[in-house]
Amino acid sequence: MTETSDYLPHLVYDAAQVGALDSRFINEFGVEGFTLMQRAARAAYDELAQSWPMPGRLVALCGPGNNGGDGALVARQAMAAGWQVTLMAPLDLSKASGDAARAFEAFREAGGEIHDFVDEPIQADLIVDALFGTGLNRDVTGPMATAIDRINEASGRGVGVLSIDIASGVDASTGRAWGRAVTADTTVTFIGLKLGLLTGDGAAHCGELAFDDLGAPDALYEGQPHVARRITHRDLRHALPVRPRGAHKGDNGHVLCVGGGRGMGGAIRMSAESALRAGAGLVSVACHQDHAGAMSQARPELMCQGLPDDPSAPDARARLDTLIEGASLIAVGPGLGHGDWGDALWQRVLESERPLVVDADALNRLAKSPVEREHWILTPHPGEAGRLLGWSTADVVADRVSAARTLAERYQAVVALKGAGTLVATPDELWLCTQGNPGMAVGGMGDLLTGVIAGFAAQGMSLAEAAVFGVYVHALAGDEAAVDDGERGLLPSDLLPCIRRQANPQRP
């Protein structure tokens, strides 16, 4: 059964885990490898026929491995359906063995010819990318690199690209692009959903996803390890039930948002408003005194406390202490700035015993002076994660799973590593968000996320649950806000009414 990206499986695997599932299917369930290859080709061709229903010119680029064998069998089916098919091989296919060699021979027996790859523009209506499968773990070089360049050049001219199992050049475990990678319109993947399709560079290269389990029984997956769980709407509906009729504001927590230094009041206001829209019963703001009056006028539901240039002065310190004592949880960092004002607030927040959601300028302070603490959520983007770990941003992007897990262990925190395919690392599990869109890559989106997470935690979710479902609702809101007017030009404030709707999944 082929599924759209809205209905992908719940569990996500790395390359080795999918390889183990594949071997188990063959060795323990008695299905021949070539039979699985035929099923994969049939599933891929079904997707091809649905997305490109009018036969035309098809070029299949195949490597010598099993992924290339899949491509040869897809090309064979396309040829039988009336496509004008050319199969090209950048590498010597005499090195092919086993099921792959059998697939290439089947293509020849059906009347197909295999041509050496020629470094010139590809003239086609559709390209089938079957160069690399899930085993790639080094930079792409030589003729395969040239073939990828030609595929992407053709894609830029409007030629359709269908990748088999994963876009060639993408690491199936991490989503890293190994030097260069195919940019596909659609990728059809099999047996187990690979993490690399959904995070890092993979999310941009693999296009729309279709999944087929190739007839695998449920027993194949029982007790087998996985790397992550996808966050789904079913999970959300369970986490956010309809409120009881007798609920009052005290049941829904009190969030204190700390930040908004001079000239940066908008950041903490967005965090505070999103906490309200996520359902927090009360939200207070500790910000620079320049912003408190305007913020209260613009959003009277916020209880704003303006603090002077020296927030450690006795009167200011007493007012901040009162706010902290009344809070269920503190969100700190947006607009905190880099000066002494932000330093003083950060130190006071750290001294408190309240759970924390830490973002932006607070994360940069933590990177400079790491501390041990419990009961907190860190929400870094890759650059902030790199500073927290002492890694380069490129290293974080290349292996987001290791980065998220290492942060969670080093700081004893729940970690939401933002970006395409946001990962939430909890003490026991890794969660993956497959919602969201490129329009959300704009300043202020992270401030909203901080508020949503804080709002959920204040309402009684565990910190892990708040991070998981805060990330998911934030992403759903971004997708909803982009529907009518598009992704480009999307503003964080556009998401606020959508956050409210997505935080009520049980609504009629």
UniProtKB/TrEMBL annotation:
Cofactor dependence: Mg(2+); K(+)
Domain of life (superkingdom): Bacteria
A GO molecular function held by the record: kinase activity
Binding site for AMP: 418-422, 446
Keyword Transcription regulation on entry: no
Domain YjeF N-terminal: 18-222
Chemical reaction(s) catalysed: (6R)-NADPHX = (6S)-NADPHX; (6S)-NADPHX + ADP = AMP + phosphate + NADPH + H(+); (6S)-NADHX + ADP = AMP + phosphate + NADH + H(+); (6R)-NADHX = (6S)-NADHX
Listed GO biological process terms: metabolite repair; nicotinamide nucleotide metabolic process
InterPro entries to which the protein is assigned, alphabetical: CARKD (IPR000631), Nnr (IPR030677), Ribokinase-like (IPR029056), YjeF_N_dom (IPR004443), YjeF_N_dom_sf (IPR036652)
Keywords: ATP-binding, Isomerase, Kinase, Lyase, Metal-binding, Multifunctional enzyme, NAD, NADP, Nucleotide-binding, Potassium, Transferase
Enzyme Commission number, as recorded: 4.2.1.136, 5.1.99.6
Cofactor remark: Binds 1 potassium ion per subunit.
SUPFAM superfamilies: Ribokinase-like, YjeF N-terminal domain-like
Binding site for (6S)-NADPHX: 66-70, 133-139, 165, 267, 335, 381, 447
Residue ranges annotated for the YjeF C-terminal domain, each copy included: 232-506
Binding site for K(+): 67, 129, 168
Family matches, as PANTHER family: ATP-DEPENDENT (S)-NAD(P)H-HYDRATE DEHYDRATASE (PTHR12592:SF0), ATP-DEPENDENT (S)-NAD(P)H-HYDRATE DEHYDRATASE FAMILY MEMBER (PTHR12592)
Subunit annotation: Homotetramer.
Task of the protein: Catalyzes the epimerization of the S- and R-forms of NAD(P)HX, a damaged form of NAD(P)H that is a result of enzymatic or heat-dependent hydration. This is a prerequisite for the S-specific NAD(P)H-hydrate dehydratase to allow the repair of both epimers of NAD(P)HX.
Family: Belongs to the NnrD/CARKD family.
Name of the protein in question: Bifunctional NAD(P)H-hydrate repair enzyme
Protein species of origin: Salinisphaera hydrothermalis (strain C41B8)
